[in-house]
Design goal:
two-stranded antiparallel sheet; 12 strands; DUF6470; alpha+beta; about 200 residues; single chain; rod-shaped
Amino acid sequence: MTKILPHLEMHQQFGKIAIHSERANLALHQSPAEQSIQQPKAKMSLERTPAQVTIDQSNGWHNLDLKSARVRIAEAADAGRQAVRDGIMRRAQEGDELLHIERSKGKNLIAKQAADHAHNAVIGTHYQTGNTPASEAVHYEVSPARLQVDWQTHAPILSAVPHAPEASFQPGQAVTSMAQYPSLEIQAVGIFVDEKG
């Protein structure tokens, strides 16, 4: 006959913890900056003065006695003024001679003056055609051309509007729960003895 000694039997079940976690979420959004560039056009202005040549060949024509009426009138006026001056001088000289006629020493002074008058008489008007050298017969003046360039530049116009980054954050979390509760069973065995065997 088997005899079981009294004892305690224990049945234990460990507890289990379940953890459910959600990860944190970080979102970043960066909007591009707004840029504007304007470049005004440069302005250019040109001012041109053309070349100019002035040629005066009047002296060459005068050498050929091809003179304008204005030149002939001026020459005639000069000749007339000179004739008046010569006449005044001649009459003053003849008056001085007649004033001192006693110094003529027997010469016929009046006849001599009359002969001089006849010798110096000029019929018509005598014009000089000119004796200007050929190298000086033509005068010319040259004014060179001029070109003036003016620039007016403009600096570029820049404008920029930055945008700050946009961030959104969702924190993570952890949720715990009991997946299995702990338990302990204690049972007494062998208290009652079966002696009948």
